[in-house]
From TrEMBL:
Pfam families: HTH_18. The keyword Protein transport does not apply. The lineage of its organism: Bacteria, Pseudomonadati, Bacteroidota, Flavobacteriia, Flavobacteriales. It comes from Epilithonimonas hispanica. Residues 377-489 form the HTH araC/xylS-type domain. Keywords: DNA-binding, Membrane, Transcription, Transcription regulation, Transmembrane, Transmembrane helix. GO terms for molecular function: DNA-binding transcription factor activity; sequence-specific DNA binding. The chain crosses the membrane at residues 320-339. This is HTH araC/xylS-type domain-containing protein.
Length: 496
């Protein structure tokens, strides 16, 4: 018996040390999470330390999730996806409802940001099934409800859930979930249908920020969203855009910075201040080019994982067919990604249904090298700015639009225009026009219910197609479903 005492003592010391180590890792991760919007380098360093250590599965999973958020702020979409799959692998070791829910929630969030709408729906459905089984619904259910309600509000007048009510009070006891509260508060302001109400909301939010000293990244987002509301009211948005831009020079969020630079450039263009426009559109083009290139690589990684999961029968075959079909067309839809990121500025922004399957990176690089050699940089920027005006004025709705006619309108030649569309949109001319038209009519169907009652031929003509069959083929290739099925799905959502 005496011989066993030292063994019990050693075992006790080991347990105490293990518990201490686990508490230490949890504390490090709390700090990392709080650093995300204040000092992204430190957040990455701390979370990376835990991820590389002999930490518990729970701590490692959490570390990888923090690293995925850090990667997103840096515009590193490949890092986002790689860390999500590492977190998922660790979560399998834990195998409980909370971790499964959290992983589905994170995948849903980023699939939506990347425009992978069908995959987003699959993950949201998984969350729905797991929600009743959660042992801790305080933050998990809240995050899910905010994301789910935000989706539903696009087909209703206003959110059914008050995002900033009782949960925000409870969540303030947990610093590591504070970002969830602030994200949701900003989303509420976006959901107002009236620009004046949105403006008042964001003005109050900024006063609240000054009082409680919320992260400067959220302050920048609020200034940007306030400026958007002002622009809709035909007020001058520039002062608040510049405030947002100034804050983002010190705090990393490359996605938001891209949005802000674009808005500033467009303001200067509309006011005929070309030197300021060219400076800001140059910054925007560089940021956006890096983000888009990274996005294509991230989606290639998603495809590989989907193929592996399909071969292991871990995904339903029907869902895989739908998902891959939508992925094939999403990556080549640069416009869809831009539109959706504007709709969801926090984590934010969504849209189309397609992805690039492989050789797009090589093709893109070849186009890039070719463009650098053949089109002067200033000429390229001028054509891009004119192309943006073409999109803004919705001239793509003209049925007679062609590469030749658009080249004349933009005062360039067909070769330059074709190369620029290939390089910046990763589409040929016909695909580019079709994407613009389909995105236009889809937005109409989402925001103006009367469009759901129109005949398919009318919808085709409304967005510039000369025939119903051409419209239906283009619609299905981009959205993954036929126009009739898409309209039915929207009607079903409204009934629910």
């Amino acid at each position: 018996m005496k011989k066993l005492v030292p063994l019990f003592f050693v075992f006790f010391i080991f347990l105490t040390y293990s518990q201490s180590l686990e508490n230490s890792n949890s504390s490090i991760l709390d700090k990392a999470n709080n650093y995300i919007f204040k000092d992204v380098k430190n957040a990455k360093k701390l979370a990376g330390f835990v991820a590389a250590s002999n930490a518990s599965a729970t701590d490692k999973m959490r570390a990888f999730l923090i690293l995925s958020d850090v990667a997103y702020l840096n515009g590193d979409y490949v890092g986002v996806i790689n860390n999500l799959y590492k977190a998922e692998g660790t979560a399998r070791l834990i195998n409980n409802s909370n971790t499964k829910f959290l992983m589905s929630l994170y995948f849903a969030k980023y699939f939506r940001i990347f425009g992978l709408h069908y995959l987003y729906k699959i993950k949201i459905d998984e969350c729905n099934k797991l929600l009743p089984k959660l042992s801790s619904k305080e933050f998990l259910g809240y995050d899910f409800q905010s994301l789910y309600d935000f989706e539903n509000t696009f087909t209703s007048n206003f959110p059914k859930t008050n995002f900033s009510s009782k949960y925000s009070i409870d969540l303030r006891k947990h610093d590591k979930w504070i970002s969830s509260v602030e994200d949701c508060k900003l989303r509420v302001g976006e959901l107002y249908g009236d620009a004046g109400k949105s403006k008042d909301y964001f003005s109050k939010y900024l006063k609240y920020n000054q009082r409680y000293k919320i992260s400067n990244v959220y302050t920048a987002k609020a200034y940007f969203l306030l400026a958007q509301s002002e622009n809709k009211m035909h007020l001058n948005p520039l002062p608040n855009l510049l405030r947002a831009d100034s804050l983002l020079n010190h705090y990393v969020d490359n996605n938001l910075k891209t949005e802000v630079k674009y808005a500033i450039a467009m303001h200067y263009l509309q006011n005929n201040k070309l030197p300021q426009y060219q400076y800001n559109i140059g910054d925007y083009n560089k940021l956006n080019k890096d983000l888009y290139s990274n996005l294509g690589k991230a989606k290639s990684i998603i495809i590989k994982h989907l193929q592996i999961e399909a071969s292991d029968n871990s995904f339903d075959t029907f869902k895989i067919q739908i998902s891959v079909a939508s992925l094939i067309f999403l990556t080549i839809s640069f416009l869809g990604f831009i539109i959706t990121r504007k709709k969801y500025i926090d984590f934010l922004k969504y849209g189309n249904k397609s992805i690039l399957t492989g050789s797009i990176s090589k093709a893109s690089n070849n186009n890039e090298n070719h463009n650098k050699n053949s089109i002067p940089e200033k000429t390229e920027e001028i054509i891009l700015s004119k192309l943006l005006k073409f999109e803004t004025n919705k001239k793509f709705l003209q049925p007679s639009i062609s590469l030749i006619s658009l080249s004349k309108e933009l005062e360039t030649n067909t070769r330059y225009l074709s190369e620029i569309i290939n390089h910046h949109k990763n589409l040929n001319f016909n695909q580019y026009i079709n994407e613009l038209r389909i995105n236009y009519i889809v937005e109409k169907m989402k925001t103006e219910p009367i469009y759901l009652n129109y005949k398919i031929l009318y919808l085709a003509q409304e967005c510039g197609f000369s025939s119903q069959s051409t419209f239906s083929i283009a619609f299905k290739s981009i959205m993954g479903v036929s126009p009739i099925s898409y309209i039915k799905s929207i009607r079903d959502e409204k009934k629910a």
